[in-house]
Amino acid sequence: MAAGRRGCMNKTNQPSNILDKVALTVIGAAGLQWGLGHLFGFDLVRLVRRRSTTIQRVLYGALVLSSVWWVLRLVSNIGAVAPARQARPQEKAFYPVAHSIVDMKLPRIQGETLSWKRITLPDDVRGKVSLLVMGFSYSARWEVEAWTRAFRERYGSRGDVTYFQIPVIQRVARLARHYIELGMQHRTPTDMWDHVLTVYGTTDSLRRALGVTPARDVWVYLINRSGVVRFQCAGKYDPVLFEELAAATDNTLTGRPIPRLEIAE
To answer: Does an H or E element contain 152, and which?
Structure first.
C-alpha cells in the first residue's frame, strides 16, 4: 500500500523554526526571572537597569516581540487546522513493513502524564497488553485521539489492557512545558489524564529507535505483557485497520500467534 508523498507532513520553514526557538528562549528566560523574583526577590531587570537603560529596553523589546511572534504563530496554526483536517481522509494508513520493529522489545520511553505521574515504558506497563499511539506533530492529535477512542470503547473495561496517547514534543518546548500541559489538560477529559503521556526530547533519536519514517506523524504500537511489540502500523485512523489491531490484541491476550501481513509501504 502506498505511503503517499514521503516527508510532506514534516517539512518546516527553517527561518520560522529558528525564530520559534529564539522566541521560546526569551519567553522562558522571562518566566525564569518571574520565578526568581517571587521566590528569592532577585530582579535581573532591575540589576541591568542600574547599568544601562538601553539594555533594559532591548530586553523588554525582545520579550514583546517574542510574545507577538508566538501569538501570530498560534493564530496561523488555528487557521490551518480546518484545511488539514479536510485533507486527512485522503491519507492512507499502512503497515510500515520496511521499518517494522514487530517482535522486538519496545525502546525505553519516559514521560509524564497529565496527572503528573512519571511513566517509563515498557517497564511500568509490564503485565498488561498496551496500546501506544504516538503523535509527532500538533496536527496529529485528532488521529491519535481517534485510535485510542476506538480502542478504549473495545477494551477499556479490561483490567489487563491499557493504552496511552503519546504526544512527542521537541526538547526546546520544555521552556513552555507548564503552559503546554495546562492547555492539554483543558481540552482533555479528566478521566483520560492518566492515559496521555507527554514525551519531551530529541524526536530524531526516538524516531530511529521506533522505526518511524517521515511519511506519517501518527504511529500505533501494540505491546504484550513483556513489552515486546506485537503489532505496528501508521497513519490516520482506519476502521478496517483497527479491526486488524483488535485481532492482534485478542491474539496477544490469549497467547495465539499473530499473522504477519506483508503489505509494502
So the answer is: helix 141-155
Handedness of CA 143, 133, 7, 102 (dihedral sign): negative
Q: Classify the phi-psi angles of 132: left when phi > 0, otherwise alpha if psi is within -120 to 50, otherwise beta.
A: beta
Cβ atoms of 47 and 59 within 8 Å: the answer is: no
- CA dist 11 to 4, 6, 215, Å? 14, 10, 10
pTM of the model: 0.63
For 97-254, the fitting CATH number among 3.40.50.2300, 3.40.30.10, 3.40.50.720, 3.40.50.300 is: 3.40.30.10
Residue 243, all three cell numbers: 479491526
Query: Which residues in the chain are classed under CATH 3.40.30.10?
Result: 97-254
Q: Which three cell numbers stand for residue 30?
A: 522571562
Task: Check pLDDT > 80 for residue 74.
Answer: no
Q: Taking Cα atoms as reference points, which of 73, 71, 58, 59 lies closest to residue 15?
A: 73
- Side by side, the strands of the sheet bearing 109-113 are 118-121, 109-113, 197-201, 161-170, 129-135, 218-223, 229-234
Q: In a 10 Å sphere around its CB, with 0-12 CB exposed, 13-18 middle and 19+ buried, how is residue 116 labelled?
A: exposed
Cβ contact 243:168 at 8 Å: no
pLDDT tens digit sequence for 149-161: 999 999 999 999 9
> To the nearest whole percent, how much of the chain has pLDDT over 70?
57
Cβ neighbours of residue 162 closer than 8 Å, sequence gap 6 or more: 125, 128, 129, 130, 131, 195
